[in-house]
Predict the structure of RETREG1-3/ARL6IP-like N-terminal reticulon-homology domain-containing protein.
Amino acid sequence: MSRAIILWLIKLRREKRFKFFLLTTSILFMTAIIGRLVPGVLIVYSITMIMALGPGFAIYVLPDGLYEVLRDFFIPNPKSDETDEKDSERQTADDISEKERLSEIALHEYLKSTEYELNSAYDKSEDSS
């Protein structure tokens, strides 16, 4: 993730200097304001807690749609903005087919476990009668 962000920033600096300038200036300005208003110990504690608990919270608590939006926001796509529409459509179709395949596997595993539980419960009821 760090590498993708650094590559994106390098590309931004080469291609859109003013946008890079505004981004870095605003980040440094906000950091200075936060550093002035909030004690350093609280900042370190907050960053540590976010790093420790953030990924688990993002995966298990947030809805899938919001998780994917956040993932796309924090992991920028290093590809150029002039990507071919056909490639993106094909890639989207591949992503959907991959998700469908994984959901089918998960459904199959769930049904197998449920079927086993139902069969074992049925066998126990026969033994008791």
